[in-house]
Amino acid sequence: MEWNNPFVQTNKTIEERFWEKVDRSRGEDSCWEWLGGKTPDGYGLLWTGKNRIGAHRFSYMLSHNIQSLSRNSFVCHSCDNPSCCNPKHLWLGSNRDNQLDYFSKGLPNNHPTGKDNHSTKLTEKQVLEIRELRISGLSIHKIAKRFGVVDSAIFYILKRHTWKHI
């Protein structure tokens, strides 16, 4: 058995490497599953030299003969299968379009909140303290500075856009 070193250059084009990692065996109308590396959310990732791109984005670009997409452009799935690369299941929209589509289908909101969110800087105890400090008259800016976060983080906590569960 020969070991294929991923760092060795091959003569294959990026398109050839892409299609080798897409399972199209179930037919042209079914989901075409990405067989390569994926994000924790199940979205396929394709390395193009030093850069990586979502496999579904690359599929959309190939099928529409587009050289690049802006970061504000979302390639959305009508099938709601993040590893699907079938161009028939993909459409171009904005972040808002993508969210409206998601919620219109009644899909679950599985985004972790509060201390379970990996990017949070605060604890539940600190959030309660923030609310008390604001009630006592301390400005949003001073509270933010005290906890090492931006003013908007404090504003969203106080308006219960974030940490609404406590």
Question: Would you kindly provide a brief summary of this structure?
Answer:
It is built from six helices and six strands. The chain is an alpha+beta fold.
What would you say this structure looks like, in words?
With 166 residues, the protein is an alpha+beta fold. The protein has 2 domains: 14-104, Homing Intron 3 (I-Ppo) Encoded Endonuclease, Chain A (Alpha-Beta Complex), CATH 3.90.75; 114-158, Arc Repressor Mutant, subunit A (Orthogonal Bundle). Helices cover 33% and strands 12% of the residues. It has 6 helices and 6 strands, in the order αββββαββαααα. It has helices at 14-20, 55-63, 95-104, 124-135, 140-147, 151-158, and strands spanning 22-23, 33-34, 45-48, 51-54, 74-77, 90-93. A two-stranded antiparallel sheet has the order 1-2. The longest helix has 12 residues, at 124-135. The chain is elongated, with a radius of gyration of 22 Å. The relative contact order is 0.09. The model has no long low-confidence stretch (mean pLDDT 86).
